Input
Amino acid sequence: MNGLDLVNWQCLYSAADVKVCLKKVHTLRYAEEVCYDNTLIIKPFSSGLEIGSSNWRISGPRRNLMYLTSSVFESDHTMDFDYRSLQGSDVILFSDCSYVHNTEYKVPCTSSASLSSDCYSDRANNAAELLSDNSESLKEMQKIGFICSCAVNSVKAGGCVLISIGRIGSSLVLLEQLSLMLDSSDLKIPIFLLSTSAEEMLAFSNVIPEWLCNQRQQKLYSGEALFSHTELLGAKKIHVFPGVDSPGLINAWQEPCIVFSPHWNLRIGPVVHLLRRWRGNEKCLLVIEHMMDTDIALLPFKPLAMKVLQCSFLSGIRLDKVQPLMEKLQPKIVLYPEDSRIRVLPDDRNLYTILYYTKNETVRIPCLRNEIEAELSKDLAIGLKPKLLKNGSMAIARVKGKINLNLGRHLLGPVPEPSRTFQHEDEKDLMDVVSVENSRIFQRRGDLPVLAEKSSRIFHNRVVHWGSMDPSMLLVALEERGINGTLVKHETSSGFSCKIHVSEPNKAVIDISGSSSVISTGDESLGALILEAVSSTLDSI
Amino acid sequence: MTIECLVLGAGQEVGKSCVVVTTGGKRIMFDCGMHMGYQDRRRYPNFSLIPGSNDFDTAITCIIITHFHLDHIGALPYFTEVLGYQGPIYMTYPTKALAPLMLEDYRKVMVDRRGEKEQFTAQQIQGCMKKVTAVDLKQTVQVDKDLEIRAYYAGHVIGAAMFYAKVGSCTVVYTGDYNMTPDRHLGAAQIDRLYVDLLITESTYANSVRESKLARERDFLTAVHKCVAGGGKVLIPIFALGRAQELCMLLDDFWERMNLKIPIYFSAGLTIQANMYYKILIGWTSQKVKDAYVTRNAFDFKNVCDFDRSQMTAPGPCVLFATPGMLSGGFSLEVFKQWAPSEMNLICLPGYCVYGTVGNKLMSKPKQIILDDKTHIDVRCQIHQLAFTAHTDSKGIMDLIKHVSPRQVVLVHGERPNMEILRERIKSELTIECHIPANHETVSVPSTQIVKVDMTKAFIKHNTSMMRRRVLDDIIEGNKTLTGLPSKVAEGIIVMEKGKRAKIVHQEELLPFLNTKEHEVHCSYCFPVYVGIQSGEVSMAKKSEGLSIERDSKGSSMQKDLDALSAERNLKAFMVEKDSRSLLERDLEALPAERNLASSSGTEVAIEIDQMSEKSEALFAERCLASLDRHPLLHLLFLKLKEWIGEVENIQELYGCIQLNSMCIHVCGNEDCPYRTEPAKEYDRALFFCCSWSWVDEKLARRVVSFMKDLDLSCD
Output
């Protein structure tokens, strides 16, 4: 071992650090909305994997994103995967990487391809069925049943059983089933829970009905404990100790026994001592979860005579359910991890775009909406003075108000009364902001700052005309106002251009081109009439 | 749109809480309670008053129950099982767990002990509860596309919740019963600042402020201790859930501390079972109780045991919790008959007793209670009334209203005189409209109304980024009072198109959005101003001042200079098209009149453009400055105009022209200027000024023109 390896042994954080860190955590309940910075609304939904595990929806003003983690459709301990609430998400960030470890659920490419065309309609119909079938949870129960029977066989043969499973929910169910099976086999075998957090975990799991699956919630309504371990503790069938050196353990200890003592790679805690004690006994049984490298985990305990049962619990969405799920959720964009590309076959009929993400790389997600959904107060809406446009299909109006941003929603409401008197000053202030801002730019460019103020003023107060001027319409409009003009047309290289000469009641010329009209007259009242006529033939605001 | 609030129960009274709120095509029934003081049909709300009551499933969108007390849930099985409502019902997890116990207890009391005809069966209670959807606190439940509800912690009893409902833009909060101060086992009510349209609040203690909880607890313990120490029996008639657990915790704790061995009894197995529920639901209690659950669940009572009927007449002191509360009948009344005649004994009445119950009669400490013709009970025992209700007092109600900030308030669940006093306080102190409808009355309240629109990014960005900048500036300057911020006025243009959602765009976006281009409307006028010198002299004067240095070598004349000037302008216009984003050009664009002038120039200009376009931007800027030197007479005009107009208007001399708002004035040497209406030769001693302006400034421009026409620039 060289010095580099020692680095791994340094203390990363202390218990105090954990405490301080958790104090900073803001806890939410399922479907509780929390607003961050008045813009993002964050909402968790049950994912079904473990007690409290969640998928998260993050909604911004223009799109919402669903962070979809490892999810289990039906569980026998924790609340089910609440996928119905995920509908209507624009973007799904698919982050369920359980398939990496779960080779048994790999969908062969051929079968997926054959599904693609003929079975499509069938599949759509079956999607809901497939998602809600309970075969998964039955299979999980079978696994638990198998573990129980192996354990009972071992203790019947006089061996001890060491169970080192980190999954809390599954451990609790296993504990329940195991004691049932021991009872039915009429065996008086003690079960020990050796862990520093076991006591708290057992107490906690019985006071959280809101987080558990339906069957367990039913237990609440009939006044039963949520998990049977409360009863088992009372009947002294299970014994809880923080560690092997705990006082009282020696007195309660009796072999054969069943011990729950989790550690993810069998290196720390009571599990080490018990493995040393039982490794040579071929009657004993070790139950561990499927891990990356079992050989390395078991290396310090070799030679190993005791039996090893390796099990893997369902820890995510089965690959064959991914597509039906997406069909149900109807997102616009789905992001899959790059290494899933070979496993999740993108369907070319899919209604959503598929993007892939990789470690340390930013994926740009295309914008789905240009506008922000917002609200306009009725008070303002009533005060609008809409003007029908010349094309007749649209009406426009100027609108003035105050934008309130509350819980991620923009509301344009009336300007509050008290500030109305200050409105002018206000605007002036803001104008200063603009001009200061602009002048900074100007100063950088070494130009004249005076102009900046000028531009902002025009920018704010400009009345805009648009559309193309029809000279004959203008002539009619002039006539209505008692003005007679003669039209002179010119064809220029840049398009049409024409002039209307007016001699009565006074001299005036109207110069019309594609994008502008210039009125020239020395007569003020005539000028005003012509302006009115010009304005009436154009759209303006 | 309005919010219609029909009060079916608890209007100016306490009992059978039931408020039906209709808004935006949705109808929500808040609570479905029964009145404990009546035995006839008045005990239930009059459901036939609900519009469309022949089909409740379509008439009512959902029912929301705030907590498990019978005056809030008692009529629910009747409504769902007898009247046949099948729609959704929402309540919190504890309420769903505990409500059947309350209902079943009540049913038993009615049928088994009082011998009444049963209103609903045990199966019907089960059937009713199956229809209930349990919700967690703060969980935002989407009842349907348009209706959203959310529960908030209310204190009062375990699982009690205030409910927020939102239909479109209409928002309502119905409080149910709540407590603003934490008690021994529950926390205080908590709700967000929701700014709702309507707040429907209870007002049981509309006109009283309660003294500290500690003092009341001490009084209770002293009274109980005194009684049992003297060998007496203590009867606490109480409902199975809620107050029972709180008082039990109090006594259990006291017994531990005082090392008392006198038995505390719970009547019937029911309450022991109830404690089991409390143990599971400890997450809904106060933080203090919650934190201790690992070591000892606070509802594991050490000194409490079951009571056997035979012990009723047994000698010796004891404390007995007996159901039902208020001594409205059943076992507690039976025990009362036995114990009331002895002066050693004590009856503790915790909380409110509805009119018509024995408990209510006892409050006036009578010598005798007449139950019916045959039963007269002598009351010699002590009576201790506990002000232990879990309702908020008037200060709490005011605090809640202030916090939620509703537009209007409806008071229910209280007594009329006190409610009237509170209503006046709400109106005067909070300036919020307040109603106290009686039963069967409807209150209509206007709602905030909004129209859904789209806003473009630019519109929001332009109108909020500055707001943020201001906030930032204020923070930098140490002025953190955000309320004092001047509000930013947002300006935009709303575009409405048939069949589409209206869209608010920023002014600058409008034309691209409409897929059209601006049509500029300008006025131009070229006219002479008396200058008193020959036009030749003008050009001499100009030359001597060295205007247009570069041009001099080519043999300058005023005409040429002016041509050059227009060429520059044309170039500017060209540059504008080339890169409209550049801010420099943008500002030049602000002189649109010049552009028009330039476009009317001759072929020379075109050549100029070709030459110029090859040159660098730097050179362009340099030449701009060189050729845009001041014209002496223009400057004179500028001074005169400035003097005439005063400081108010924004007048500036720039680039060889005078700028006044959109109006631009410059010297015109073009004899064929299209904007001249009068022939040139009449004005030998005059200099032509060409003016152009945007039509917006028409009035101002005309004033300037007439001023200039009367001007004599030769005087200096």
Confidence is low (pLDDT under 50) at residues 469-486, 534-564, 570-618, 620-628 of chain B. Residues 76 and 221 of chain B are 37 Å apart (CA to CA).
